[in-house]
Amino acid sequence: MSTLSVQDHGVAHHEEGHEHHHDTFLTKYVFSQDHKMIAKQFLITGITMAVIAMLLSILFRIQLAYPDKAFPLLETLLGRFAPEGRLDPEFYLSLVTIHGTIMVFFVLTAGLSGTFSNLLIPLQVGARDMASPFINMLSYWFFLTACIIMLSSFFIQKGPAGPGWTIYPPLSALPTAMKGSGLGMTLWLVSMVCFVASSLMGGINYVTTVLNMRTKGMDLWKMPLTIWAFFLTAILGVLSFPVLVAGVVLLIFDRSFGTSFYLSDIVVNGQVMPFEGGSPILFQHLFWFLGHPEVYIVIMPAMGISSEVMSVNSRKPIFGYHAMVYSLIGITVLSFIVWGHHMFITGMNPFLGGVFMITTLIIAVPSAVKTFNWLATLWRGNIRFTPAMLFAIGMVSFFISGGLTGIFLGNAALDINLHDTYFVVAHFHLVMGSAAIFGMLAGVYHWFPKMFGRMMDEKLGYLHFWLTFIGAYLVFFPMHFMGLDGVPRRYYAFTEFASMQRWLSVNMFITWAAIMSACAQVAFLYNFIHSIFWGKEATQNPWQANTLEWTAPVERIHGNWPGELPTVYRWPYDYSKPGAEEDFISQITPLSETMSSNLPHDFEDNPAGLEALNTWTNTQKANEEVK
Amino acid sequence: MAQTQQEDRLNLGAKKFIMWIFIFTSFMLFAALTSGFIVYSGGSGHGLNITLPSSFRYSTIVLVLSSITLFLAARAAKRLDYDKQQRFLWVTISLGVAFLILQVYGWYTLSYKMHIYLVDPNATRSFVYVMTFLHLLHIIGGIIWLISALSGSIKRIPQVKNLYRMEMTSIFWHFLDIIWIYLYVFLLLNQ
C-alpha cells in the first residue's frame, strides 16, 4: 500500500543520497502524497480563499459606510447583485454568510491546521510522512472540491447562501424563504459535507501520526508545543465535526424530504406550510456542539505556533511548558461543555444557562495561564523582532483584548443585552479572527524557509505587520461601542433606523481602516510569491532553533531525512542554557555532548546519567582546586 | 522504540489506529443523533409511541450472527486455513446483505403496514428512519470492506496483508454490530 512505498523512499535515500525516484509533474505537484507538498497546497489554497473572503468583506463594508450612495462600478463588477450600483439587500446577507464561512472553515481551519499540521507533525516528531499519505492527499482534494463548490454559488441565478454562517433554520431549511435559501444553500451544504470529510481525514491522520510515528526518544513530553496544539486540535475536530454532520443530515431531510426536525408553524407568503412539531433550537444545540469547539480548532494551532515562535525568538525556554500543555488540554475538555453560551436567549432554562455560564468563565483560567506564560517567556529574553515574532506577539495582543470581552459575553445577564450586536462581532473578530490569522502569518513567516527553501523579505514583513496590526484594531475596536449602544449585526443600511444613524460616521471610519488593512495584504502577497522564486536562499537552520525540522536538509526530500531518522535526547526548548557554548541546543544533541550545561533535573528518570553528571562536576571542582 | 527497524510492520499498526479513530467519529455521529432525539422529545413532549417492526429484531440477530462468523473467519485466517476463511467470509457477507434486506423490509413494514412515514409531525418517528438509514450506509461500507478481505484471500495476497485486511474489517464490522445494538436498544427504551 501507499505507505510501504514511502518507506522504500527512505531506504533508497539511505543508499543513493538525494536521488529521487521519477516523479512526474502530476505526482510531484498535483496528486502529491508528500506531506510537505500537501501542506503547501493547503497554504496556497487557504491564502487564495482568504483574499476572496477579504474582498467580500470590503464589498459589504462599502455598503455599510455609504448605504445611500450608488457606485456604478459595483454594477459593472457584480451585475444583478448590485442593480444601479447599490448592493442587493439579500446579496448583502450572502456576502456576510460566505465571508464568515470561508474565513472560519476554509482559511482558519483548513488553511491553518491543514498547512501547519501537515508540514510540522511529521517533521517535528521525526516521521517520514503521515500515517496514511493517501488519505492525506484525499483530504486536500476534498478540501479543494469544497472550495470550488462554495465559490461556484456566486455564479448561480439566486446567488450564494444567505442565512449566516451558522445556517439557522428556518431560513436554511425552507428553500423558498429568501434568495439565499435556495440553490445557494444547497451548494453550501454540499460544500460543507466535502469540507467535513476533508477535515476528518486530516484530523484522523494527525492524531494517528502523533501517537504512532514519533521517532526514537521523542516521548510525549519532548514534543514541541506546536505538536501538542495540532494534536489536541485534531482530537477536537474528530469529536465535534461528526455532530455537525448529524445536524446537517437532519437539515437536508427537512429541506428536501419534508420532515419536521427543525420546523414548526411556518407561514410563507401567507401560505401555511405543512411542517409541524419541529424545534429550531435542536439545530442550534447540534450546531454549537461543533461550533464552539470549532473556535478552539481555529485558535489552538495559532497558540501552538506562537508559543514556538516566541520561544525561539526570545532565545529562552517557553515559560511553564507543562502548564502550557495542561492548559491546552483544559481548553480541549472545557470546549465541549460550553456550547450553551451561544444560546442564552433561546428561552433556555436559567439554571442551565447558569451552568453554561460557569463552564464558560472557567475557560478564562487556562487562557490566562497561557497568556501569562507567553508574557513571562518574553520577559528578559534576548528578543529578536523577526516578522514572525511580531506576528506572534500580535497574536497575544489580540487574544488578550478579544478575550477580555469574552468574559462579558459569557455572562448570561450581560449576553441578553449584547447578543447579536456589534459587540459580539468585535469580540470574535479579535479573539479568533485576528488572533488566529496572526498566528497563521507568524507560522508562514517562520516556516517559509522550511517550505520553499528561501527567506521572505523582512522589511516588507514589518510593513505588513504594522499596517495589519493597527488596521485590525482600528476596524474592530470601535465596534465594541456600537454593540454597547445596541446596534445589531447583519443590518443592511444604518440609515433606515433613527437609533443607528449616528453610527454612520464610525462605519465610514471602519470601512477606510478595513481598506487600508486590505491594501497591506498586497505587501504580504507580493512578498510571499516573489520570495518563493527569488527570495534569499535559506540555510538549514536560519532561526537557530532546536526542533527536528531544522535538522532536515533544505532540499525537502521525500522521506524528510536522508538515512536514518534522527534520535531525540532532550526537550525542544533548551535556549540560552547556562554553561552551553551556543544559545541553542538541538533536540538531537545527546546530553553527553553538553556536560558543561547539564543540570540535575535533566536526569530525572536516569540515575546512571545523574551519577555521571555528579562525577563530572566533582572532577571539575577538583581540577579547579588544583589550579 | 522499534520504528527504525520495522517501519513497515508498525505502519500497518498506525493504519489500524486510523480505523479506531474513524470509529470514534462514527460513534460521535450516532451519539449526536440519539442526543438530538432526547433533546427533541424532551422539548416537544413527543414520544415514539409505536412498536418497532419485528424485522428489526430479526436483523439484530442476523447481525450478531455475522459478527460470530466474521470472528471465525479471522481465526481461520490466523491459522492459515484460507478455505475456511473464505467460506466464513461468504457467510458473513450474506448475513450482511440479509441484514440490509431486513432493515429495508422494516421500513416497508413501518410505512405500508403501520402507516408511520418519514414525514411525520412527530419527528421522533423520522429519527427512526434517519438513524437506520445512516447505519445502513455504514453497513454498505462494511460490506465493501468484507469483499476486499475476501478478494484478498482469494488472490492469496501475503499473509501479513491478509491478516491486516481481516483485522481492519473485523474492527469495523464488530463496531457496526455494537452501534446497531446501541441504536436498537435506544429505540426500544424510547418506544
Question: Gist?
Answer:
With 627 residues, chain A is mainly α. Chain A contains 19 helices and 2 strands.
What is the CATH homologous superfamily assignment of chain B? Cytochrome c oxidase, subunit III, four-helix bundle
CATH architecture classification name of chain A: Up-down Bundle
Largest sheet of chain B: none
Multimeric status of the protein: heterodimer
Average of pLDDT of chain B? 90
Description of the molecule:
The complex is a heterodimer of chains A (627) and B (191). Chain A has 627 residues and is mainly alpha-helical. Chain A has one domain (2-534): Cytochrome c oxidase-like, subunit I domain (Cytochrome C Oxidase, Chain A, Up-down Bundle). Chain A contains 19 helices and two strands. Chain A has helices at residues 2-16, 25-30, 35-65, 72-78, 89-125, 133-152, 183-212, 225-257, 280-314, 321-334, 350-362, 364-378, 387-410, 412-418, 422-452, 458-484, 498-501, 504-534, 607-626, and strands at residues 267-268, 271-272. A two-stranded antiparallel sheet of chain A has the order 1-2. The radius of gyration of chain A is 26 Å and the shape is globular. Mean pLDDT of chain A is 92; it is low at 1-20. Chain B has one domain (10-190): Up-down Bundle (Four Helix Bundle (Hemerythrin (Met), subunit A)). Chain B has helices spanning 7-44, 54-78, 82-113, 123-154, 159-190. Chain B is elongated, with a radius of gyration of 19 Å.
What is the topological layout?
The complex is a heterodimer of chains A (627) and B (191).
Chain A: H1 2-16, H2 25-30, H3 35-65, H4 72-78, H5 89-125, H6 133-152, H7 183-212, H8 225-257, E1 267-268, E2 271-272, H9 280-314, H10 321-334, H11 350-362, H12 364-378, H13 387-410, H14 412-418, H15 422-452, H16 458-484, H17 498-501, H18 504-534, H19 607-626
Antiparallel strand pairs in A: 1-2
Helix pairs in contact in A: 3-5, 3-6, 3-18, 5-6, 5-7, 5-8, 5-9, 5-15, 6-7, 7-8, 8-9, 8-10, 9-13, 9-15, 10-12, 12-13, 13-15, 13-16, 15-16, 16-18
Chain B: H1 7-44, H2 54-78, H3 82-113, H4 123-154, H5 159-190
